[in-house]
Amino acid sequence: MVADQDSSVSAPYIESRLTQFHHLSHPLLGLSGRGDLQRFVSLLADSAKGTLGIKEFIDNPVLAQILNYQQQSATDEACWLLFLYCYVGRSGLFYAIHRAWSWQKASANADDFHDWLTGNQQELKNVGSLSMVHKYRGFDQHRAEAMAEGVKSYIAWVKAAGDHAGLFQNAIADCQGQSMIAFDRIYLSMNEHTSFKRQIKLDYLCMIGHLKIAGIEPGQFYFSDVLPLKKAARQLFSGHPSVKMPPSELNELMAALRDCLGSPFSIAVLYRTLMDWGNEKRVPINPNFRRY
Questions:
Q1: How open is the CA angle 101-103-107, to the nearest 5 degrees?
Q2: Residues in domain Alpha-glutamyl/putrescinyl thymine pyrophosphorylase clade (predicted)?
C-alpha cells in the first residue's frame, strides 16, 4: 500500500501525466522554460505527500509537527501551529512566536498576545520576516499591529465554537457531512469574523483538509478572491500572468488537470502548488522595504 502511494507522487509519474495533459487537453505554456517542468513536478510531489498521512514522506518539519499534534489528539495545538505557519511562513519569526505562545496561552490571553507582539516588534523583526503572502514582508510596527488584530479575531472566532474540533465538527454536521459545502461555509464564516487576508484563510482551510485534521475540502479554486493564485494559473496555462483568462475558464482547466493527475492531487494540493510556484515566479519585494 505504501509503495503504491509512493509511486503515485513520484516525479516520473507526475511528469508523464503533465505531458499527457499538455498534448491532449491544453498546453502548459508556463512549463516550457528551462527547468520549469521539473520544478513544478517537485512542488506537486511535495504538496501531495501530506495527503498520504505518512510522516516519513514529509520533509517540512512544521507539517510533520502538525501531524504529530494531531496524532496525539492535540487538535487545538495542531490548528494553532498551522494557522501561524499560513500567516507567517516558515521563518525565525514563526518559530519565535510559537515558542512563546501555545494555543492554550494565546487563547486565554489574546490581549496579552497583542501587547507582546506589538511591544516586541523591533526584536521580532530581527529574527525573520513574513512570508510572500504579504506584499510587504518586513515586520514593521504597522504589520505587527495588523497581525495582532488578525490573530485576536482568529482566537475569538474559534472560541465562539468552543475549540477547533468543535468548530469543524459542527460545520460538517450542519452540512450533513458534505465536505465541500462545509468548507465553503467555514470560509464564509472566517471572512465575516476574522480580519486577515483571504489568501491566508484559504491556505489554512485547504491545509486543514489536506492534512486530514477535518473532513473538509474546497470545491473550487476561489480565483476571484486571490489575485496571486489567478496569476499563477494564467502563467501555467498561457505562459504569462497577465493574459486575460476568466476565473470560470481557469476553474475548468484546473479541474481537468486534477482529473488527469488523479489521486491524491486534490484541489487543496493544486492550490498549495500553484501558490508556491507563483511566488517563485514573481519578483519579490525586498523584505526590508519600508512603505513609509
A1: 100
A2: 68-279
